[in-house]
């Protein structure tokens, strides 16, 4: 990292370098692949197959393939950034350097809110645990007893992350093996119990609710949330041996393995649901614990017991990685001065940011309070993640267009077209999640403006406020535009802008915003006459 002043950040202070050097480079390819796979395969495999079938029927298979391909495209952008400038919590740092402090603060705020994704994993554990402890839920929300259990589990995951990154990686590798074995056994056992032919065409056909439902299910059905998480290895790039070699292979391998597993699970669900449950079509199929209850109906009691056990291990493993990942994000937010610098302190003995872990524990508990269940949380959290991808697409284009090429590694060919397509794809994912979720998610992100203004008043800044606002204005316009189009469009909106013109409008407008954002970022880097920080 450069010690010179860069746009959106002050000169690197000696105290910051001390904390950076305490991070230990101990992760290799298999450790990173396991982190990515474990973060992707969490509660999604327990719930998403049912929710996807309810929304799109058998056509949900197309959504899984599409999500894998599109997330792979977005991952190429993240890989180039991670390989070029490995840094703890890089997904929070890159937008700051590329687009200034306003964008860095808003993206950082959305990242802090996305800590709620870990709450979703814990919520999934609670929904399956309700099979054994029926007092966990009351009226669709966690009871006082259930909240106590959830908080205790959150505390346990935080404590397990308190020690060295090597211990974290070893435990995660063991969990990942279990998370592969149980879904594979489930698929084989469900098909072996008997399956119903014609399920891809019966009960309304392959796409009983229209092909537009394949887009709605990406976010609202939990598919994007389920495939999401591939960026986890990148946030450990500052703790990786030879990141330029290991990061690309680890990220792409994790995505491929996860998508193959999700497709197998979706097929197993579609073909083995008993015929008498499909009287009202796929929309009428509803389980509190989809695969666990399905196994019981099919008299696979041993499988049901295994699934209820894995309902703790799979989301627990993702929550375990999520707690570690969120700590790196919070560490980077403190480094950005989005939150006080005290939270970037790294334990000299363990090489772990303990104060960041403690803060994230508090945020997780807050998210457990207002939401009723898994789908309620992931529908909103998915939009928070996607904003990180959009900002990263801008960042990679800005760095490439900066004087000297911005020190990019050149791992990914074709970034000149991959970056804008990735930005548009991320924007469409946000839009397709629907007005019901966006009316909450996007205003929450815009609330980060208050944090930006508060921090601006208390921090020393080398740029005038007006210049910072001009550089970051594109993100404000972007969020307002998506909110307005969501209200106008057909994805749970008013329908004033009919399909497919609503999605086409999103593509055209966000593409224009992308090029505006890139020009603004390059201009502010050039004005400072300082290249982005070197790897």
Helix content: 55-70%
* Count of distinct strands: 2
Summarize the biggest pleated sheet.
2 strands, antiparallel
Task: Supply Rg.
Answer: 22 Å
* Overall pLDDT: 78
What's the SSE pattern? HHHHHHEEHHHHHHHHHHHHHHH
List the helices and strands and how they pair.
Blueprint lengths: L13 H9 L6 H12 L3 H13 L3 H25 L5 H24 L2 H14 L7 E2 L2 E2 L1 H17 L4 H28 L20 H8 L2 H5 L4 H4 L7 H30 L17 H8 L3 H36 L17 H15 L5 H28 L13 H18 L2 H12 L1 H11 L6 H24 L12 H28 L7
Antiparallel strand pairs: 1-2
Helix pairs in contact: 2-8, 2-12, 2-14, 3-9, 3-12, 4-9, 4-12, 4-16, 4-17, 5-14, 5-16, 5-19, 5-20, 5-21, 6-7, 6-14, 6-15, 6-16, 7-14, 7-15, 8-12, 8-14, 13-14, 14-15, 16-17, 16-18, 16-21, 17-20, 17-21, 18-20, 20-21
Task: Give a written overview of the molecule.
With 535 residues, this protein is mainly alpha-helical. The chain is 69% helix and 1% strand. It contains 21 helices and two strands. It has a two-stranded antiparallel ribbon with strand order 1-2.
């Amino acid at each position: 990292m450069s010690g010179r002043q860069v746009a959106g950040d002050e000169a690197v202070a000696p105290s910051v370098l001390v904390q950076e050097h305490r991070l230990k480079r101990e992760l290799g390819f298999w450790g990173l692949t396991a982190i990515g796979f474990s973060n992707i395969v969490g509660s999604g495999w327990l719930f998403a197959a049912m929710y996807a079938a309810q929304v799109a029927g058998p056509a949900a298979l197309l959504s899984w393939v599409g999500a894998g391909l599109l997330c792979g495209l977005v991952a190429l952008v993240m890989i180039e950034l991670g390989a070029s400038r490995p840094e703890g919590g890089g997904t929070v740092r890159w937008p700051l350097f590329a687009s200034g402090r306003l964008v860095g603060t808003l993206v950082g705020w959305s990242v802090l809110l996305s800590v709620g994704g870990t709450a979703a994993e814990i919520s999934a554990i609670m929904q399956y645990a309700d099979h054994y402890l029926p007092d966990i839920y009351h009226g669709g929300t966690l009871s006082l007893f259930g909240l106590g259990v959830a908080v205790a589990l959150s505390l346990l995951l935080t404590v397990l992350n308190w020690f060295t990154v090597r211990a974290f990686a070893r435990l995660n590798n063991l969990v990942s093996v279990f998370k592969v074995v149980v879904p594979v056994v489930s698929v084989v056992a469900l098909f072996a119990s008997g399956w119903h032919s014609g399920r891809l065409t019966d009960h309304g056909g392959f796409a009983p609710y229209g092909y537009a439902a394949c887009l709605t299910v990406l976010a609202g059905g939990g598919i994007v949330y389920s495939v999401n998480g591939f960026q986890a290895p990148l946030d450990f790039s500052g703790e990786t041996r030879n990141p330029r070699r290991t990061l690309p292979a680890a990220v792409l391998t994790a995505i491929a393995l996860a998508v193959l597993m999700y497709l197998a699970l979706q097929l197993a669900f579609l073909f083995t649901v008993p015929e008498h449950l499909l009287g009202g079509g796929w929309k009428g199929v509803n389980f509190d614990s989809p695969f666990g209850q399905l196994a019981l109906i099919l008299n696979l009691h041993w499988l049901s017991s295994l699934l209820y056990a894995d309902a703790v291990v799979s989301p627990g493993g993702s929550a375990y990685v999520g707690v570690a990942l969120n700590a790196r994000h919070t560490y980077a937010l403190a480094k950005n001065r989005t939150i006080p610098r005290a939270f970037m302190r790294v334990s000299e003995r363990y090489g772990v940011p303990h104060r960041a872990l403690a803060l994230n524990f508090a945020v997780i508990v807050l998210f457990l309070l207002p939401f009723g269940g898994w789908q309620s949380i992931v529908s909103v959290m998915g939009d928070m993640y996607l904003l990180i991808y959009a900002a990263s697409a801008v960042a990679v284009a800005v760095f490439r267009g900066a004087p000297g090429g911005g020190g990019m590694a050149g791992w990914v060919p074709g970034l000149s077209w991959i970056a804008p397509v990735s930005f548009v794809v991320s924007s469409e994912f946000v839009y397709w999640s629907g007005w019901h979720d966006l009316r909450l998610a996007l205003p929450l992100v815009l609330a980060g403006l208050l944090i930006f203004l508060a921090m601006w008043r208390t921090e020393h800044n080398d740029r005038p406020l007006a210049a910072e606002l001009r550089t970051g204005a594109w993100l404000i316009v972007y969020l307002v535009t998506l909110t307005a189009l969501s209200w106008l469009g057909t994805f749970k909106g008013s329908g004033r802008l009919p399909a497919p013109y609503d999605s086409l409008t999103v593509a055209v407008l966000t593409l224009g915003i992308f090029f505006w954002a890139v020009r603004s970022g390059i201009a502010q880097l050039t004005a400072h006459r300082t290249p982005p920080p070197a790897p």
